[in-house]
Structures are given as structure tokens and as C-alpha cells.
Design a protein that fits this description.
heterodimer; A: mainly alpha; B: alpha/beta; Rossmann fold; five-stranded mixed sheet; globular
Amino acid sequence: MANKESFFGDIRKHLMTGVSYMIPFVVAGGILIALGFAMGGIYVFNTPGFPADVFAWGKVAINLMVPALAGYIAYSIADRPGIAVGFVAGMMASNQGSGFLGGMLGGLLAGYVVKAIKQLKVPSMLKSLMPVLIIPLLGVFIVGLGMTYVLGGPVTWLNQVVAQALDSLSGGGKIVLGLVQGAMLAFDMGGPVNKAAYAFALASAELDNWGPMAANFIASMSPPAGIALALYLFKDRWTSVEREGISGCIVGGLAMITEFAIPYAAADPLHVLPATMVGSAVGAALSYVFDLSLTAPHGGLFVIPLANKPLMMLLVFAIAIVVTAGMLFILKPKVTESEEEALSM
Amino acid sequence: MKIVAVTSCATGIAHSYMAAEALTKAVKGTEDEIKVEIQGAMGIENRLSKQEIADADLVIWAVDVGVRDKDRFEGKNVIQFGPYETIWDAKKTIIEAKEKAGL
């Protein structure tokens, strides 16, 4: 593998790997917790019974979120031997209250520590002891030192500061947050900027604040859904090939797969991206204004009934779609005949 | 030219597949052949064998997350991209990969 990537490019890939393995835990956990609340009310955990059990299962899954994140970040760096050390680092972060941020740093620490240990030259008779004894033992020991005496304090502090800042955001701050978050989500539709904004929503969820997740839903669903509406209403703005993709856009919009909007943005980024960004930014900002929250990190329309205000959420979603489509109507020029001909050639 | 590629993305449900489709489309009507392995949320699909990788003239990774079973690629000159840029313009990806590989 001669082709070297930059150090930061590598880090980004490791973090993405962690997030990608973490998501199923958050999905199962978040939705079960929401179901528990739906069945047993907001004090579901106080009354033993089936709803409380469902809630508890969800909690177990969500508590594995940070360990899984750290474990698979370390896996991405150091391969298989990284997993165990990374999981322990993540659990330490969880216990310390340093959360998502602590888990990220812990996973990186674990990964690079294990990678370094792997490179130690050991006599061949000790080789077989590396994966079963030396790496896990030495790795967890070093990670423990790092997490407890170095990272733990400052990162836990930082995490609490972020949590308080999120909770205490007032009207104007929320709108700005929503605008930025929404625009980022629509900017590259599933690319790195989008995923950074998604990671923010996940990190907030870990702090038990699911408001950013609701904004995330609306801003991620409105680009494909808004394009679908524009495909239906403003036929002269699109080529015939583009119009055929409407079913994909509808599915993408309902299932929260922003990527379905990519072909449209790729064909005409300068007109399409500003439109989807405005629609998503407005949607996300409104989501904060109406204090929407959603205890599920993925699942599109199918999990909206679990939101704190489902009808309000649908309304905000509808507004975001209409704004996106309206912006497309304003910004996107009509398709010329020569473009249409070029396609049929 | 024989090309093999791996695609992956953070959620593993959309980008990985779209990048694979884009690459497959991009070689249509050219001299190149391509086989694309998708490392998505459901595991590895269309898996590349060690032999296929060894026989390839060009190895492209369009990945956002760590590649699984990396050891299959040992000794190969792997040209890396993001899945994102590949979806936007897979033809360019292939041209750039060839340049970087000195082909």
C-alpha cells in the first residue's frame, strides 16, 4: 500500500469507522427507549413491567454506544488486536462521563497504543503471547493511565460544558445552530461535512439531548424529498432522465437517505446545492424553534411517531420540503432543448 | 485493463452502493474491466479473491471507513479516494487513479 494518505485523512477514516459500527447500537437503543416511553409514560423506569423492560433493553444498547465507537476506532487503526483495548477505553470514557468525545479520543489512543505495541520486536518464542497476553494487558494498562490521569479530567469537563451550552441555548442561538447544522447536512449529502453534522447530533444524543437529532432528521430528509416535489411540480427544470429518478428521491426522502439527492446536485451543483441547503437550514432551525426532539438516530418517516411532537415534526418537515422545492424553482434555470438532445444521443 | 475496487461508507447503506454503481458505469464502453467489492452495513458483498486482486492492474479504494481484510491487498499499489468524489465523477476517479499508478 504505497499510496500514503495524510495523517488527518487517516484519523477521519478511523473516526468514521467507529461511527459506522456504533450506529446500530444507537438505532436499537434509541428506538427501544422511545418505545418504552411511548408505552409507559415519562417515568417508565420507575414502575416495573414490560414497558420498563423495553426501556431497560434500550438503555443497555445505548450504553454500548461509546464503547463500540472507541472499539472500532481502535480496530480501524490497529486491526483486530485493537478491538478489546478500544472497547475498554470507551467504557472508561462512559464511566467518567467524558462521553462521545472521550470515546473518540480513547479509541484513537487505544488504536495507536496497540499499533505501537504490535511493532515491538519480541523473541519468536514470545510471539504467540502477543495477541493473547501482551497486547491486551499492556494496552489496557497504558490506556487506563491515559484515560484516568491525562484525558479524563479535561475531556469530562469539556463534555459537561458542551452539554450545558446545548441545554441553555436560547432562541437566537438555537436558530443559528439549526441554520448551520441544516446547511452542513445538505452541503454534501452524506459526505464528510454531512457526517460531521450527524456526529454532532449523535454526540448530543449521548448527552441525553435528542433535539439536534430531530433537526438532523428534517435536514437530512428534505433534500431528496424537496427535489422529488420539484421534479413533480416543475417539470421544465429537469431533463427526462432526471425526472425518471423521482421514485428514488421519494424513497430517499421518506427513509432519510440523503444520498439519493446526489445525482441531481452533481448535475447542477451551483443551483441545486444552495436550494437544498436553504431548505434544510430552515427546517433544522424550525425544529429547534419548536423544541422538537426525536429519540431515534435513523429510520426516516417510520420513526417520526416516536418524536415528542410528531404532528409538529411532520409540519416542519413539510415546510422544509416546500422551501427546498421553492428555492429550486427560483434558482434552477429551465432545461434547454440542446441539453435534452445531448442526453438522447 | 483489469481494475478491482473496494467501496465503503460510514453508514454502509447508500454511498457504498452508489460508488460501486458509478465505477461500474464509468468503465462501460471502454477497454477496462472492473470488479467492485462493496463493504457495506450488511458485510462484504461481491468479495474480491486474493487471486483477482493479484491479477489486477489497478486497485482503487473508494472508502470512508477502514477496509476489512486488508491483508489481501498486501504488495499492491492501492490508489485511495473517498466514495463521495467517486459518485460525483467516477470517470475522473479512474483517470486519476491511472495517473497516480503511473499507467
